[in-house]
Amino acid sequence: MRAVIVAAAVAFLVSLLGTPLAIRAFTRLKAGQPIRADGPAMHHVKRGTPTMGGVVFIVGTVAAYAASHLALTTLPEAQIAQVDPTVSALVLLGLMVFCGAVGFIDDFLKVRKRNSLGLNKRGKLVGQLLVGGVFGVVALYFPSTNGETVGSTTISFVRDTWLDIGKVAAVVLFVAIVMASTNAVNLTDGLDGLATGTSVMVIASYGLIAFWQYRHWCGDPAYTVDYCYRVRDPLEIALIAAAAAGACVGFLWWNAAPARIFMGDTGSMALGGLIAGLAMATRTMMLLPIIGMLFVIITFSVIIQVVSFRTTGRRVFRMSPLQHHFELAGWSEVNIVIRFWIIAGIGVAVGVGLFYSDFLAAVT
């Protein structure tokens, strides 16, 4: 628990204190956020606000992970051996950094071209496929000494199920989840603080799940209860989730309305990649749509809008993603964000509740 607290605290401080430095640096570099010409009129006042702020919480997460391992050196030697940097950390931090790198290229091109187009759809698709594929292979093909891999070949809900799909199909499924998650967070990032606050709740819930798995871990020789979680490196997963959540809270201080800086695609894709990795590493892939309920709703609003317009020529919403529909309906930005956070919190509460109720049903 000490290391988890250290990870969250260090990430929070790095992000809180580092974001003003990033604001000044990106302002000097004229890395301002381009605004869609067809977007809500009220967004045009945000033109020129520094973007690519996701760099700050990516750095904060990695730095906090390193600091948490220094904290672990104060534990007895027998416990230190269990938490050396692992393949789990490589996969989760790698997904965050390299998905963020794809988003950074997109942001850089937007700033350079002075428009909102950035990297084309094919370029984003190739980048997401490469990152998801590489780390999916690492997660499925590199077992630990006890035979456990970061990912699983079985479909998982609150734990692994009986349905084994094999390694190749599992990698394909993971790539699909990485692509869905990165794009979902990216679509949600349309109002000040919306994606950041939602990501805090989702990532923190995975930190709680991972720590619970660590306390009831099949790999712990001191844990002798029949019901345990067969995952790899749950404490590592909890450390990274705590660090990312803490970093996002620090960033939210500056990203809340009126935002002084935007996370950009750098941040949204980094968070989406990490969330997909957390779902895989905790063996709760099919629980992700519930925990990330707001991301799912917003993504489906775009799908519904596109399908409706292409098939009937009519739009279901005034504008998609969904948050812009409510803006055009006259809702204030702060009201939309707070109410959407409530929806996100409900999804997180239901998802964590399902996870915990499975445990209670098994031990009683």
Topology of helices and strands:
Elements: H1 2-28, H2 54-72, H3 77-80, H4 87-113, H5 121-141, E1 154-156, E2 160-164, H6 167-188, H7 194-215, H8 234-255, H9 264-281, H10 288-291, H11 293-312, H12 322-328, H13 333-363
Antiparallel strand pairs: 1-2
Helix pairs in contact: 1-2, 1-8, 2-4, 2-8, 2-9, 4-5, 4-9, 5-6, 6-9, 6-11, 7-8, 7-9, 7-13
Structure description:
The chain is an all-alpha fold. The chain has one domain (2-289). The chain contains 13 helices and two strands. It has helices spanning 2-28, 54-72, 77-80, 87-113, 121-141, 167-188, 194-215, 234-255, 264-281, 288-291, 293-312, 322-328, 333-363, and strands at residues 154-156, 160-164. The longest helix has 31 residues, at 333-363. The protein starts with a helix and ends with a helix.
Q: In angstroms, what is the radius of gyration?
A: 20 Å
What's the pLDDT, averaged over the residues? 88
The helix-and-strand class reads: mainly alpha
**Assembly of the depicted chains:** single chain
Strand content: under 5%
Annotation keywords:
globular; mainly alpha; 364 residues; 2% strand; 2 strands
Summarize the structure.
The protein has 364 residues and is mainly alpha-helical. The protein is built from 13 helices and two strands.
